[in-house]
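Quick one, probably user error.
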């Protein structure tokens, strides 16, 4: 009977160790390096500048010529810029508070999602950094 209890306890402890290892693997894989974040933040900064220039254009009304901002593009750009700003700011603050540590992947994912959205909208509406 003692052997059965001992075997059950050993099996339970091995299962617990496996679960702890799985959690640890999730936590460590859910982090990004400061260098990766810097690259993404710089990419976002460039896209944000282009978005800002685009949003300074007059709204398209049909009578103001070919240089105007499309309502549909604007509707996608504004939330992407806002989300990217929040993610970038929070990542920068995290690294100020925790120098040399890995950053949270969730914030990085939010930043890269904003980057992807902006790149997609810019390609779709042929928006370039030259618009001023």
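Nope, works fine. Designed sequence:
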């Amino acid at each position: 009977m003692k052997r059965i209890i001992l075997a059950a306890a050993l099996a339970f402890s091995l299962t617990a160790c496996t679960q702890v290892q799985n959690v640890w693997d999730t936590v460590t894989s859910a982090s990004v390096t400061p260098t990766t974040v810097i690259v993404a933040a710089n990419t976002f900064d460039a896209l944000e500048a282009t978005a800002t220039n685009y949003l300074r254009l007059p709204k398209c009304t049909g009578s103001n010529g070919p240089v105007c901002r499309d309502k549909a593009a604007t509707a996608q750009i504004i939330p992407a810029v806002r989300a990217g700003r929040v993610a970038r700011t929070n990542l920068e603050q995290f690294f100020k508070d925790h120098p040399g540590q890995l950053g949270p992947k969730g914030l990085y994912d939010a930043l890269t999602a904003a980057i992807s959205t902006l790149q997609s909208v810019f390609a779709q509406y042929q928006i370039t950094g030259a618009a001023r």
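Residues 32 and 103 are 5 Å apart (CA to CA).
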